[in-house]
Fold Plant heme peroxidase family profile domain-containing protein.
Amino acid sequence: MGILFLSTCSSLLPLVAYRTPPTSTYRFPSVSICCSKIRSDFSDEDQFHWRRRDILKCIGTTVGLELIGSSITHVGIANAADLIERRQRSEFQSQVKGTLFKAIKENPDLISSILTLALNDALTYDKATKSGGPNGSIRFSSEISRPENKGLSGALKLLEEAKKEIDSYSKGGPISYADLIQYAAQGAAKATFLAAAIRKCGGNEEKGNILYNAYGSSGQWGLFEKQFGRADAEEADPEGRIPIWENASVKEMKDKFSAVGFGPRQLAVLSAFLGPDQTATETLLATDPDVAPWVQKYQRSRETVSQTDYEVDLITTFTKLSTLGQQINYEAYTYARPKIDITKLKL
């Protein structure tokens, strides 16, 4: 009976060749398994039972290893699929940034409006109800026409035109307005950083580019760029959540920022987002003892070659702002790879 059973497992037949096998190592795929030595003072029947038990252990281990090997194979396939999706998103994201940066470069007068558009879309977030946030709701006519959004329609129209171009080459579906607005603000912020570098080089664009690439903050955008996959709201966010920045007092600004978890430091570093005139905004913010030290810190930083403190803090704050209350879909904009019909291959 034992021999009949073993005959179905040809890889285990060598085990029965030993009456009292020494401690041996039997090799199964990629793994070594050590079976125990059988005592010679046992009867033949006892030895058969010992052998059978060891054989069953080996079989169980082999099956387990095969299952593990199969699981590893599936994990490998899953990891490969994940890498493909990451590459798809990365390639699409690079195209999106290129399109937006080109549009911004051709319309530099809209930079401040793009920054405020992103801020106003995001600051509708309400922690109590977990509603609002950077969800693209500002695209609705009922929201963009509100007093706090006066003067921002030009920026929105620019992004709508950019969206048509982006959607024309997207293989993973149309880009959401939520992503579009925040990535446009990233492009606008980068444009201001680059412009500052060019000014430091006496207006020489080539030298300014070299300076920004050498000392700029491009490497700090990594966390922001992972947040790609925001969903669009289906209706406008509630009214009354955004101040009219040009008319707001410092206290009103501080209260609004505090409501979403920001303090005086974040308020100061986002001064360029608070209306069309950053200098006027910073002059007002500097009248507040809590905000003034941060305004002065960032003004000094902007005078340096690298602007490190200012740029890094702005990128960090903007990254948090751009994700308030949002669930990021990390599979957004991915698409199925075309299958190869092997029947058409010629060998």
Notes: Confidence is low (pLDDT under 50) at residues 1-50.
